[in-house]
């Protein structure tokens, strides 16, 4: 059986480690986000979060601070749009 993100402490730790960024502002947002929402994230939302983590620090910060909205394929992915909304509310 394949464990989900929520039930696997090692997967949660890896995701938290991957979310550590070069910009303190991003780190603070992710810490609050994980504190509020980590246990309720679906596997699809975790996948969307991983896609966001592939962005550069500055592009990610612009999304998190609502300076920019998700573009192209990111904008058409409902789970990604939800994760951005949750990150912004954290």
UniProtKB/TrEMBL annotation:
What Gene3D superfamilies is this protein classified in? Answer: Flavinator of succinate dehydrogenase
Q: Which InterPro entries match?
A: SDH, SDH_sf, SdhE_FAD_assembly_factor
Localization, UniProt: Cytoplasm
Identify the Pfam families for this entry. Sdh5
Per UniProt, the keywords (alphabetical) are: Chaperone, Cytoplasm
Superkingdom of the organism of origin: Bacteria
Q: Chief localization class? A: cytoplasm
Looking up SUPFAM superfamilies in the UniProt record yields:
YgfY-like (SSF109910)
- Family that this chain belongs to: Belongs to the SdhE FAD assembly factor family.
Name under which the protein is recorded: FAD assembly factor SdhE
Q: Which organism is it from?
A: Paraburkholderia youngii
């Amino acid at each position: 059986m394949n464990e989900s993100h929520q039930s696997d402490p090692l997967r949660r730790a890896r995701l938290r480690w991957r979310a550590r960024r070069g910009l303190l502002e991003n780190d603070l947002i992710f810490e609050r986000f994980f504190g509020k929402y980590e246990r309720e994230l679906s596997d699809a939302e975790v996948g969307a979060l991983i896609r966001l983590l592939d962005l550069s620090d500055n592009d990610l910060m612009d999304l998190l601070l609502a300076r920019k909205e998700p573009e192209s394929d990111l904008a058409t992915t409902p789970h990604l749009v939800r994760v951005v909304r949750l990150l912004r509310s954290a």
